[in-house]
Amino acid sequence: MRTNLADYECLTPGSVREALEQRATGRKLIPIAGGTDVMVWMNDGHLGKVGKVYQSLHALAGEWRYVKTDTEGNLRIGALATYSDVRHHEDVKKNYPMLVHSAQVTGAIQIQNRGTLAGNIANGSPAADTVPALMVYDAKLRLVNASGERVVELSEFFTGYRANVLKEEELISEIILPKPRFAADQQYYRKVGTREAQAISKVVFAGANDGKGNVRMAWGSVAPITLRSKKTEDAVAAGAAADDAWAILQTEITPIDDIRSTRDYRLKVSQRILADFLGKVHQ
Amino acid sequence: MSDSSDDGARPKSGVSRRGFLKGVGLGSVAIPAAGLLGGSVVLAEEAPPKPSGPKVFTGEIPIKLRINGKDHDLKVEPRTTLLNALRDRLDLTGSKLVCDRGTCGACSVIMDGLLVTSCMVLAIDAQGKEITTIEGLASGDKLDPIQAAFIEFDALQCGFCTPGLIMATKSLLKTNPHPTREEMQDALSGNICRCGTYDHIFAAIEKVAGGARG
Fold this sequence. Notes:
The structure holds 2 protein chains of 2 kinds. Chain A is of the alpha+beta class. Chain A has helices spanning 16-23, 38-44, 61-64, 83-87, 90-95, 97-104, 109-112, 117-123, 130-136, 230-237, 242-249, 263-280; strands at residues 9-11, 29-32, 53-56, 67-69, 75-78, 140-145, 148-153, 158-160, 163-164, 171-177, 187-192, 203-209, 215-220, 227-228. In chain A, helix 6 (97-104) runs antiparallel to helix 9, helix 10 packs antiparallel against helix 11 (242-249) and helix 11 (242-249) packs across helix 12 (263-280). The longest helix of chain A is centred in the C-terminal third of the chain and has 18 residues, at 263-280. Chain A has a 5-stranded antiparallel β-sheet. In chain A, strands 11-12-13-14 form a 4-stranded antiparallel β-sheet, sandwiched between helices. In chain A, a hairpin with a 2-residue loop joins strand 6 (140-145) and strand 7. The longest helix of chain B is centred in the C-terminal third of the chain and has 14 residues, at 162-175. Mean pLDDT of chain B is 79; it is low at 1-57. Helices cover 26% and strands 14% of the residues of chain B. Chain B is globular. Chain B is of the alpha/beta class. In chain B, strands 4-3-7-5-6 form a 5-stranded mixed β-sheet, sandwiched between helices. In chain B, strands 1-2 form a two-stranded parallel sheet. In chain B, helix 3 (145-152) packs across helix 6 (198-208). At the A-B interface, strand 1, helix 2 and helix 7 of A face strand 1 and strand 6 of B.
């Protein structure tokens, strides 16, 4: 049964300032950006406890819908930039191929035209397709409230299943990607799902090597959160063989059986993705 | 799907069972049309009166939608999706309700130049936007070239996914008039055809695009 939206409040601030002032009142407000998660909950009747209060960020697009490279060479993705905005942006295509790839395999065109990367992060699904790629690019998040802001590492944003460090009064205002530093052929993105499009991942991985001792490896759908396998990264940077790297990786990921796949299958696929990755990047 | 579907038999005119149920006990408060995702209102049922602040309303609200170049005034509950508004209030039943969760593409429409699944957009949020549905493609008896090509190439079997696929094709060719096969696959990947007519669909698109590129 579709949820009766009249059972819920939805605040519709007209500006960033108004949105943050509403959040500063201490009420718990659930932000809506593209709505591609919220609409599914609504149509399924899973919007949650009656009385929850939503906050639509729709009218903030004028301020927060952008993709641009700043004067220092960092890429800035506004919180209301959609997957389509990102995957078709020239700077992204040139410098962040895994971001293009991961945005392209998120849902399909119709979802990409509505959904936002910041919403994907805030929603906190461990199966999010763009998050591993963003982590490998050392993405940071700018979190703002009515009186200030702070910047946190995306790889330290998630604290547990659908839990994160965002405070009630804060919103993600933008995603910041440092200047690109990986050669194109040293970047590897792989999503394994039931089909090519419109599937949620069974395992999703992004990895890269800058050839100067910096290896990045991030995994989705194999733990309660999207995570960087930092011990495995260090081992690979030190030249570990595939078997040794796999032994270490198994101490970092904790896949489970669920509706989309099984623990065993996810382990097997992770092992093969790891081997494929190591075969394709220099060590 | 059955519970959330508004697809039950509904006469073109007159009172349907659903319409009757909706008409009972739902006082609608006249307020300025404003979107859940776009205006400045607060939704709440039986909410205690607030001393100040945004307006509160219940029941159906009046909205205005611009569809296929024509303005429509209608009343919807806040939870009504654009798809349900099209089908159940405006008798524009070309957009199909199948998954109701943005997965199958059968309800695809073009909104402000972008392909979207109308089940994933609230009707109140679609106000002020230019919406094109499958009904808006033909002019009189003259079919859109995409529609004609779908017929010529037998690009359908049961036809239920066809309106969505044609809208996705329309959206693709608008920005990319001569797509490669790979670009077609990407553009249509959000539209699922369970009859498996994809090859004929791609052939139809190639015809419209004046042959394949690459």
